[in-house]
Amino acid sequence: MTGPRHRPLVVLEQASVTLGGAAVLRDVTLTLSTGDRWAVVGANGSGKSTLLRLLRGDQWLDPFLPGRRLFHGPDGEPSASPIGVRERMALVGPEGQDAYARAGLDLPVEAVIRSGLDGERYPVLPATPARSALVERAAAPLGVEPLLGRRFLALSRGEARRVLVARALAPGPEVLLLDEVCDGLDAAGRAGLLERLVAVAAAGVTVVTATHREEEIFDGVTRMVRLAGGRVVDDRAADSRAASDRLADGCSPAARDPGGRTTGGRETVGGPAGDRGADRLPLFDLRDVTVLVDGHAVLDRVRWTIRAGESWGITGPNGAGKSTLLRLLAGEEQPATGSIARLDLGLRADADQVRRRVGQVSPELQARHRLDVAGEAVVHSGFLGTVGLAERPSDRQRQEVTALIDLLGLASLRARSFLSCSYGEQRLLLLARALVARPAVLLLDEPFAGLSPEARRALRETLARQRGEGTTLVLVSHHEDELAGVVDRRARMAAGRFTVDA
Q1: What is the pTM of this model?
Q2: Are the C-beta atoms of residues 57 and 264 closer than 8 Å to each other?
Q3: Beta strand 231-237 with 223-228: parallel, antiparallel or unpaired?
């Protein structure tokens, strides 16, 4: 029965979306109503992100296929236009976050949150006392009040994500759409955000969250929608948080074990102590390195030596300096004080010299990679360390790309437009790009973000194989289960300081 507290907002009837010639959604029939609390799950490329954009009106239906979408405003009258309804919906996801970096919108955090009041990326109206109060009210529950004076692009990935959630909540939306909203958050940040979502939903906001992780489905979800191949394959009322009703898309309990004890029956942590011998060739040597960002010491007197064949896992809270550390290794940051020797390139090597020698994956790299080329071309670019192909690949390189794509199970993405791929599919192509030239070093910043349980498990096996072949790994993660079986050395960062675990 539909009443004032439970009326339709968006109705999809046999809705289909085609992107880059590929069927992304097919024959989707769903009704989103006021007060709904959905979790949308499914493997990479199943259509989750596209569904969220479709619900908000940011994505159009395929005009050559049957199907329709109707938006219902406060008066209940249906319309094919999202105007008047979309303004009351907020969407938070990795693609929106990347848009700030691509556009170079390095605004103060306060201005980013205030822009949510105007429905624009840049604030239209000034910071009046009333608007400033709304900004502070949205910032406080998410713990981002101390960041209000900082520049947005200087924040860590997790800090920026919490800011964007505050931006979405500032105007008091009727509908909150969340796409892998916990990616990049440390454990405390995830817990705090999930508590906030419980409160937001209890206040009557309609919430739809798409995620690959069972533990990131907030308490109180009432409906589970599972997608596969762009179609709804399961749509049911959520039960009392049974895992089998959530993410049964390939992640075994062993692979999810937060203690990291086993994965698929394999032993997980470490290698023999002899593997840590000091006679290995130093690849990176940091001596009392301090790196400043906006005058703030993001890295503070770091001393660290990485030797050939070592595999390091780096953990720490949001804003600790982990991503900056990887950018320093890659030559994208330089010390304000202290020194770093990279590979055999001496003390003054820059990113141009380093990039042909290492494989990299990071959210920043993914944000920059906006050329609309085929997935195969993205992987080819790994031979040059470039964004896009600057040289014609050789026959040998073509053969190696084909073999790697097949090995990683990405054949369906070979001819796909990169920009038509899901965020997780793009991440997988960039991982293949990092591996294709068989680099001696892999620098990986949250490489598992946006990946389904099955894809995470396959990536862990790939990295463990690389480690066994002697590749040096440096892997940043907020999830212990992602490090188990992949790294044999651990270090932790906090407030820019670097500590090696015993």
Answers
A1: 0.87
A2: no
A3: antiparallel
For residue 25, which of 50, 56, 53 has the smallest C-alpha distance?
50
Tokens of 341: 């020797």
Give strand pairing partners of 225: 40, 235
Radius of gyration of the chain (CA): 23
Query: In this structure, which amino acid lies at residue 270?
Result: G
Q: Which CATH class is domain 262-267+281-500?
A: alpha beta
φ/ψ (deg, to 5) at 135: -60, -45
Pairing of strands 441-445, 472-476: parallel
Distance CA 227, CA 234 (A): 7
Q: What is the pLDDT of residue 272?
A: 37
The counts of H helices and E strands in the chain are 15, 21
- Predicted local confidence at residue 390, as pLDDT: 65
pLDDT tens-digit map of 317-329: 999 999 999 999 9
Distance CA 191, CA 202 (A): 17
Predicted local confidence at residue 385, as pLDDT = 76
pLDDT the model gives residue 123: 92
Partners of 17 in the β-ladder: 25
How far apart are alpha carbons 455 and 328 in whole angstroms? 28
Q: What pLDDT shows up at residue 20? A: 83
The Cα angle at residue 149 between residues 148 and 154, in degrees rounded to 5: 95
Instruction: Tell me the C-alpha distance between 15 and 203, whole Å.
Output: 30
According to the model, what pLDDT value does residue 5 have? 62
Topology annotation, domain 8-249: Rossmann fold (3.40.50)
**What pLDDT is recorded for position 369?**
84
Which residues in the chain show pLDDT less than 70? 1-5, 240-279, 388-390, 502
DSSP E strand stretches across 250-295? 262-263, 266-267, 282-293
188-197 burial code (b ≥16 CB/10 A, e <16)? ebbebbbebb
Enumerate the domain spans of the chain: 8-249, 262-267+281-500
Strands 8-19 and 89-92 come out as unpaired
Does residue 475 sit in helix, strand or coil?
strand
- Cβ contacts of 476 within 8 Å, gap of 6 or more: 313, 314, 315, 322, 323, 325, 326, 444, 445, 446
Structure tokens at 484: 């188990």
88, 36 in Cβ contact below 8 A?
Answer: no
For Cα atoms 413, 414, 418, give the angle at the middle one, nearest 5 degrees.
60
Residue in this structure with the two tokens 């820059």, named with its chain if needed? 350
Do the beta carbons of residue 108 and residue 139 sit within 8 Å?
no
| Confidence at residue 211, expressed as pLDDT on a 0 to 100 scale | 96
Q: How far apart are CA 244 and CA 257, in angstroms?
A: 15
Per CATH, 8-249 and 262-267+281-500 having the same topology is answered yes
The CA distance from 427 to 291, in Å, is 28
Polymer length in residues for the chain: 502
Whole-number pLDDT of residue 250? 40
